[in-house]
Amino acid sequence: MPLFSHRHPSSSAIPTTINPKTSKPSKPNFIPPSTRYPLPLLVFSLISLLIGLSGTIFAISAIRRPKPVPVFRCGRSEDTFRAFYSGSGRTRGDDNGALIDRPKLLGFVGIQTGFESGDRRAALRSTWFPSDPDGLLRLEQATGLAFRFVIGRSKDAKKMAQLEKEVDRYRDFMLIDVEEEYLKLPYKTLAFFKAAFKLFEADYYVKADDDIYLRPDRLATLLAKERTHSLTYIGCMKKGPVITDPKMKWYEKSGHLIGNEYFLHAYGPIYILSAEVVASLASARNNSFQFENVQQ
């Protein structure tokens, strides 16, 4: 009998059989990865999505939205001619066709007119003043002078509606922010020079009445002459006695403040101021500054 045995205590001498149908290999346990994301990442993704959607909506609305018509204004004063050319897409401006905010001119001519002066404007348009925007542009290019009818505003809705129709037809107005009344003509004149100076870079600014026949070519020749003094006035000047008798036609209510004689002032159907003079007027804060004659 051998001293040592090579059998294990748990082993059995009886062979065992394994039924393949009843015995299957066990599968290892699989734990799926967690699908939960950190909260900051979710918030960031949501914000990015909202920003992207808002940008897309804004881009679509900007493409489909009609382009607004640029309006050339100085406060409530408006140059309807340049507003027309900018909105119609026509070429007007520098050599590249770009519109100029403050075009350089030899002179800017403001034809002072009123709501009751439709016949006068029609007479001018049938003679020397072009009756369409293209003709007005050709005249400006030929002479270096820009021409506009200058008119204020009215509280009368009917008058404003009629003016709007005329503006839409001719596009040759400068609308200024002042009430259109005869006794307020000094305020209108000052408002005109201020608006013209800010809308146009001209060497000279011309104020003219709407009952004159003007030769634009001769006016351009006059303005093109060299002058030694930069502070230039071209036109008539006037002074005279102050009427203090209430029975007289030209009775001056404030005659006691003026004195016996009016100071020297601009007078006549047309006069011209150089850019340096108009610049000083444009910077004036006192809108009651009166420097021309108004017959009452």
UniProtKB/TrEMBL annotation:
Keyword Transferase (UniProt): yes
Residue span of region Disordered: 1-30
Enzyme class per UniProt: transferase
Topology class, membrane: Single-pass type II membrane protein
Stretches with biased composition (Polar residues): 10-26
Pathway info: Protein modification; protein glycosylation
Transmembrane region(s): 41-63
Name of one Pfam family that matches: Galactosyl_T
Documented EC number(s): 2.4.1.-
GO molecular function: galactosyltransferase activity
First-listed, main subcellular location of the protein, grouped into a coarse class: Golgi
GO cellular component terms, semicolon-separated: Golgi membrane
Location in or out of the cell: Golgi apparatus membrane
Keyword annotations from UniProtKB, A to Z: Glycosyltransferase, Golgi apparatus, Manganese, Membrane, Signal-anchor, Transferase, Transmembrane, Transmembrane helix
Cofactors (names): Mn(2+)
PANTHER family in the record: BETA-1,3-GALACTOSYLTRANSFERASE 12-RELATED, BETA-1,3-N-ACETYLGLUCOSAMINYLTRANSFERASE
Protein family: Belongs to the glycosyltransferase 31 family.
Stated name of the protein: Hexosyltransferase
Organism name: Populus euphratica (Euphrates poplar)
Gene behind this protein: LOC105122197
